[in-house]
């Protein structure tokens, strides 16, 4: 019954992918592939006093009836017809839904099942009720239930529906006038009890008077769009829905980074399960009635700006299908990304797929473009979720030449938005990938090729290299003020990792990644970490990802930003924390006895400076785990160049043995000796006792086994 409890009208699809259809003679019931016809819609009535039974009423007002008349003489199957019984309590119009996986069987009171017949005529496309005895026909009684999201209004309102627009996904006025009115013109055709039942609010709530009915019928597909202000839609071919420059055509393209692939999401006031999609040209995605090709079923999808916003042709209902979504029109058709040879290739239509091979052509992946605005009341006044022609949205068209969306909003709303973001009221939520960078002061990024992201000495090029110990593999982490899910990465040259618009190679989709120091820190130097298991993807503000390329030169060791269509793991990076953000000075407690112990020790303890404390979330307390180990590797003579910056890492061990093992992993050396250096005489002393208390920071020297130095 869960298939029908919240449904006001449904379509039933057989194992042959054909729909149960009420014929024009108002008596025959058959199968047809034309699921978009109003004759394929069946209104659902719940049987009073029996919650397990339903009645199905056709668009002509007749009920689905299990008759006692055989389909053919000598055959067990009995006819199923449409008609109006003498009494609504007649059990021949009552059906019991029995769930069978994702499908349903409809059982009559006599124990037989609604059956869609196949094979040669006269059985082809017929409907009977029978009990299947052969294994080959067991699935002939299984039906898929496609809920048509409409609310049938009161009977009195149906007669005047020609002049009153109904809600989305309701039958159009001409369908009501053509279908219901001739079939039930007066009480002569329908009993008073039947009219009372039709007009009852118990089974037929009014859309105009009660919008809460939509909430109960809300499809899971709205979860893809609830908090999105702009999205990209990717078809089964890995191509994106694109609004062409002629401001009319809609097609598919692999260039998902273009602003033409971004669609602004608008919610329809009073309809919680419907959205509109607006292109970068300010036009709406529209399901037209114009045939794509003469004789073909698919209809064109265009960009238009209708005279009235209430036009149902620009409204789409998202229906969740696993990790994908189907976008359904008010006529029951679906947005379809076509494949095959021209002219079908890259075209977009709205249609109902009948072949098994094309069922996934109506599935779309939803990629949310992160320009999510605030959900708070202060910002909702300037950008309401129900506002369809917001001046703020119209003013912003994503372009690589503009500032980031957050910077744009800052200019539009002044300091109010930034203040809300600082207070935690903005809707930009911390990304799960931020946990890799939140406590890190500097990191190394290792690609799937086991190579590190390197800032070249020319202070411009960014490449991959296996030398992870080089200072050029070290990237300082900067958190973007007012935004919790963005970071900047600064190289040892003092320049930022930047996604620019220049093509890496002419004719290729990848764009260059360089080091730069812009006059104004804009969105090109901002990256959003997105966690992927134990790795991270770094996304630009315009939807591309930092990508470590492989293959032959010139691709080998290059770094670009792009959307991968084949090599999905090329955008995954492992994050190695080199330095952690020191805690607030208030968290470092030192007693007098500890000071006395430390004065006789050869270790150098360092308290975070005021400048370093300001780097850690404005001095906010951070839970500190382990200690920071700074180390240098001595040469064969035991010399250490203090002028060269050493390396550091966070160490959570408790003894010298664990520290030695960790340093062997870091340096990739074996049989090392961990020493401390006396600052007075410069001699090296091996660590033999325990580590200093209170997780104090340590400066040590690693002496390789090949060294000739004599240790004290």
Automatic annotation (TrEMBL):
> What are the start and end residues of every segment in region (Disordered)?
584-617
Q: Any idea where the DUF569 domain is?
A: 1-143, 222-364, 434-573, 626-703
Question: Which spans of this chain does the record mark as coiled coil?
Answer: none
Concerning Pfam families, the annotation shows:
DUF569, Ubiq_DUF_assoc
| Domain of life per record | Eukaryota
Q: What is this protein called?
A: DUF569 domain-containing protein
What are the top taxonomic ranks of the organism? Eukaryota, Viridiplantae, Streptophyta, Embryophyta, Tracheophyta
């Amino acid at each position: 019954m869960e298939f029908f409890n919240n449904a006001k009208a449904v379509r039933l699809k057989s194992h042959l992918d054909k729909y149960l259809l009420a014929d024009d003679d108002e008596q025959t019931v058959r199968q047809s592939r034309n699921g978009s016809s109003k004759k394929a819609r069946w209104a659902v009535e719940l049987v009073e006093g029996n919650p397990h039974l339903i009645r199905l009423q056709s668009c002509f007002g007749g009920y689905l009836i299990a008759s006692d008349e055989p389909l053919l003489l000598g055959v067990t199957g009995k006819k199923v017809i449409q008609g109006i019984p003498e009494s609504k309590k007649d059990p021949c119009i009552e059906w019991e839904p029995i769930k069978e996986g994702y499908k349903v069987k409809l059982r009559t009171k006599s124990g037989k099942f609604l059956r869609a017949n196949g094979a040669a005529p006269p059985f082809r496309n017929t409907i009977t009720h029978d009990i299947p005895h052969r294994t080959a026909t067991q699935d002939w009684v299984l039906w898929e239930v496609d809920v048509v999201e409409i609310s049938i209004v009161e009977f009195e309102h149906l007669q005047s529906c020609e002049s009153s627009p109904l809600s989305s996904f309701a039958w159009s006025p001409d369908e009501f006038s053509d279908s219901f009115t001739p079939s039930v013109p007066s009480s002569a055709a329908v009993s008073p009890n039947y009219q009372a039942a039709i007009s009852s609010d118990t089974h037929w709530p009014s859309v105009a008077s009660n919008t809460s009915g939509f909430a109960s019928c809300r499809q899971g597909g709205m979860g893809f769009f609830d908090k999105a202000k702009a999205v990209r839609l990717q078809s089964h071919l890995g191509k994106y829905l694109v609004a062409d420059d002629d401001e009319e055509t809609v097609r598919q393209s692999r260039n998902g980074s273009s602003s033409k692939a971004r669609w602004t999401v608008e919610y329809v006031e009073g309809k919680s399960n419907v959205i509109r999609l607006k292109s970068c040209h300010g036009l709406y995605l529209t399901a037209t009635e114009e045939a794509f090709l003469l004789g073909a079923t698919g209809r064109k999808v265009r960009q238009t700006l209708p005279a009235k916003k209430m036009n149902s042709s620009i409204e789409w209902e998202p229906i969740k299908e696993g990790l994908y979504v189907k976008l359904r029109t008010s006529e029951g058709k679906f947005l379809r990304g076509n494949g095959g040879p021209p002219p079908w290739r890259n075209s977009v239509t709205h249609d109902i797929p009948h072949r098994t091979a094309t069922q996934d052509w109506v599935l779309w992946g939803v990629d949310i473009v992160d320009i999510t605005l605030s959900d708070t009341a202060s910002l909702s006044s300037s950008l309401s979720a129900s506002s369809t022609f917001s001046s703020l949205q119209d003013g912003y068209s994503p372009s690589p030449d503009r500032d980031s969306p957050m910077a744009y909003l800052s200019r539009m709303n002044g300091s109010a938005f930034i203040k809300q973001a600082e207070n935690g009221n903005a809707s930009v939520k911390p990304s799960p990938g931020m946990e890799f960078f939140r406590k890190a002061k500097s990191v190394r990024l290792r690609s799937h090729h086991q190579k590190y992201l390197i800032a070249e000495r020319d202070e411009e090029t960014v490449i991959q290299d296996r030398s992870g110990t080089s200072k050029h593999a070290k990237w300082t982490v900067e958190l973007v003020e007012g935004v919790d899910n963005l970071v900047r990465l600064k190289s040892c040259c003092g320049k930022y990792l930047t996604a620019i618009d220049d093509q890496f190679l002419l004719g290729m989709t990848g764009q260059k990644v360089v080091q730069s120091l812009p006059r104004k820190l804009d969105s090109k130097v901002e990256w959003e970490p997105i966690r992927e298991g134990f790795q991270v993807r770094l996304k630009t503000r315009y939807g591309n990802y930092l990508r470590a390329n492989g293959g032959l030169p010139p691709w080998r060791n290059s770094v670009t930003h792009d959307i991968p269509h084949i090599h999905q793991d090329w955008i995954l990076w492992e994050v190695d924390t080199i330095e952690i953000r020191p805690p607030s000075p208030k968290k470092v407690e030192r007693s007098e006895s500890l000071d006395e112990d430390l004065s006789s020790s050869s270790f150098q303890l360092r308290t975070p400076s005021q400048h370093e404390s300001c780097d850690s979330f404005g001095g906010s307390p951070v839970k500190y785990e382990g200690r920071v180990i700074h180390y240098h590797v001595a040469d064969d003579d035991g010399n250490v160049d203090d002028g060269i910056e050493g390396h550091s890492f966070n160490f959570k061990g408790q003894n010298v043995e664990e520290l030695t093992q960790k340093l062997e992993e870091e340096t990739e050396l074996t049989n090392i000796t961990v020493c401390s250096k006396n600052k007075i005489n410069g001699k090296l002393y091996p660590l033999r006792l325990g580590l200093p208390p209170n997780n104090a920071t340590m400066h040590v020297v690693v002496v390789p086994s090949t060294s000739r130095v004599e240790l004290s």
